[in-house]
Specification:
With 64 residues, this protein is an all-alpha fold. The protein has helices at 2-20, 26-39, 45-60. It is flat. It starts with a helix and ends with a helix.
Length: 64
């Protein structure tokens, strides 16, 4: 749960920076946010969640 909150926070910051730097206009950013919101309620959500969790676990196992 902590990972998903952190990931959402990072993505939110990225969206704000992109909108403020005029790299992405507010309209497309809202459409992308709504797409993610509605995608979360589909049957693909568990698969996407497992994929993102496995990526986060893989990154967490990297030793420097």
């Amino acid at each position: 749960m902590a990972l998903s909150v952190s990931f959402v926070l990072v993505l939110g910051i990225v969206v704000v920076v992109l909108v403020r730097s005029k790299a992405v206009k507010p309209g497309p950013a809202i459409v992308c946010a709504l797409f993610g919101f509605f995608l979360a309620s589909t049957s693909m959500a568990p698969s996407i969640n497992r994929f993102m969790t496995s990526i986060a676990d893989m990154i967490g196992q990297i030793r420097f």
